[in-house]
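Appendix B.2, paired examples.
Example (i):
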Amino acid sequence: MEDYPRSLMEFENRFGTVQGCQDYLFRVRWPDGFICPRCQGKETIAVRDSLFHCKGCRKQISVTAGTIFHRSHLPLPVWFRAIWWVTSQKNGASALGLKRVFGLGSYETAWLMLHKLRRAMVRPGRDRLSGVIEVDETYIGGLEEGLRGRQMERKTLVVIAAQVDGKRIGRIRMQQIPDASSTSLHSFIRSAIEPGSIVHTDGWDGYNGIEADGYRRKVTILKNCKKPANELMPRIHRVASLLKRWLMGTHQGAVSHAHLDYYLDEYTFRFNRRLSSHRGKLFYRLLQQAAQVGHTEYQGIIKHVRDLKQGKHNR
């Protein structure tokens, strides 16, 4: 049975101490008992509350080792409160907002916390979308004079997949891509959508040939059509509109292209869980994934940019 706080009062009662957070993190990370991340051994000796000595490889493993909390100078209760706050905000959280609410010493500390959490918002081995999926691209950035069609310079191109759930929008996937070529679009579709699904696109040539990968394609020609695009492919255009509103509202449009994919991950995490009945469940899910992602230093985050040119899109 999933164990998560149902209210802020319950949260504070359970996670107001380091010990309370360590005990919960242990249960989330090892629900069936300790397993050494180095040798997979199960026999251990407790050195202290959060440190274990593995009898197999004879290494000492802390409850935070191999998680985003490893080597953090911030205590676990601060991290837990940040996760609760981030998952409780309907429109997301900015680094400036996190700094102000928690009284953090610098903007960089808040920025680093949020980026570590964004890296935990993609569940390892998550399922691909299936069924009928609308797919299209949208630009993130301002208007550029003299460019037509799918050309871009200062703007960046994002491809979105939205699952059809009756008249509603099901789950989504999105990703920044270098261009609208078949190489980029086919790579995204293969990583985001199960073969056998119906991929609903416009008439762009970049989607041609996707049938060879095991997909069925439904084409809607938008050019010169009497109906507007947002009626012919309503889900994808709704998601694109909401994404841009979120980037401009919560983040004031101040998102660099280098880190945009991680903001897309956050938006996807929130959107796909928008109907969750308890905010505490989002807290639980994010903490689960934070225990699996691993530790990343500040320098690694500011220097790391997903390699768009080499087509390394699978996540």
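Example (ii):
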Amino acid sequence: MFRMSFLSLALAGLFAVTATAADLTIIDVPGARETQAYGLNNHGDIAGFYKDTAGKQHGFLMRKGVLYYPIDAPVAGTTYTQIWGINEAGDMVGSYAAPTGAPPTLVQHGFVLRKGRFTSFDVPDSTFTSGFAINTEGDVTGHYGTPPSGKMRGYLLRNGVFTTFGAEDWGMPNTMTCGFGTNAAQGIVGHFQDGTGVHGFLLTGSVFTPINHPEAGARNTNTYDINPQGEIVGYYTQITGKVRGFFRSTWGAFTAVDIPDAMGTWPVRINARGQIVGFFRDSESVLRGFVLSR
């Protein structure tokens, strides 16, 4: 059974994401040690996962101010359930880990939860699979491990067919590639890693474009989501070591996204209305979800 809670959404203040102010709402699952909001659709539904008092991760859904939790993969022996994305139809995508084979080995799988029906999936012959985003067409993107090394590559799952990709496909040496977000036009954003660190990317058709935050000394740029207008959100690490969020406009201009007094800010989704969802680390080092409504 899901527990339902009418969440009190407290207005925490005003924050300038662009030239205009934005309302900031904090999202905490009651009794959780930490809460991370990862999914957002155009209706304002928010999904993600939280850590209970025992340290186990469970999924949650917030719809019209009502919080539904816990959401767990209905698989015996599941050790965690993470919801990473939600589309306009309310379909959710995520990852879970459960014992597989004989002798049993803990393996990570992707899943889609559609109208109460749970469907697990794996990239064929992979060592693990994660599902990170689902768009309005039901296309899913994420990453998977390639045997025997487990090196990560990205994929797009459309109509039951996996198309895989990695930065090396465009002549870029790297140790891993992950797809994090996809819009209706099938533009995919994510990150890849090479000897110099982590870099964001935008994959449009067959065109792979690296993205790095322009701030002096910036490193580890993660492009996490793209909306139908081509606006991108993500985060990077400053030269001081602090994680800071960003909004990247359609024409490539960067704007900071910071939660006031936060030790770090991770914006991870943006919808067509310009709402941004993510999580931050507060002054007591607790991870908490947020939504910014412009």
